[in-house]
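Q: I'm building a small set of examples for a reading group on sequence design. Run inverse folding on the following structure and report the sequence directly after it, with nothing in between.
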């Protein structure tokens, strides 16, 4: 498993943020979108929000690549429809390149402790 973290902003409008969250509740999500995520090799995906900033954690299988997912998405009309709908709520980060949405974040710190109880 490989983990990626990504960020994107929503438009700073409480009504749009509420509607974006509505579409991301399990009962409102599109099954075709969930399937496309799984088919791309994404085993787990979580999205968190603070204010209008979104933070995504993706855990992927060994055969996942952003290029492959992009090609699959481009060939899937339902994914294109979903992305058009989502763009109503989203806005690029100030440092995004033209047309870039979710941006991969750089890990700058990690604390990984293993407590060993075998010391006598």
């Amino acid at each position: 498993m490989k983990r990626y973290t990504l960020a994107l902003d929503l438009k700073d409008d409480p009504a749009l943020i509420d509607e974006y969250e509505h579409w991301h509740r399990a009962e409102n999500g599109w099954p075709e979108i969930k399937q496309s995520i799984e088919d791309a090799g994404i085993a787990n995906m979580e999205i968190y929000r603070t204010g209008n900033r979104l933070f995504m954690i993706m855990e992927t299988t060994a055969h996942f690549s952003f290029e492959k997912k992009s090609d699959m998405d481009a060939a899937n009309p339902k994914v294109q429809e979903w992305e058009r709908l989502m763009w109503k709520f989203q806005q690029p980060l100030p440092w995004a390149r033209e047309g870039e949405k979710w941006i991969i974040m750089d890990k700058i710190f990690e604390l990984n402790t293993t407590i060993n109880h075998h010391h006598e």
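Helices lie at 14-24, 31-39, 66-74, 77-87.
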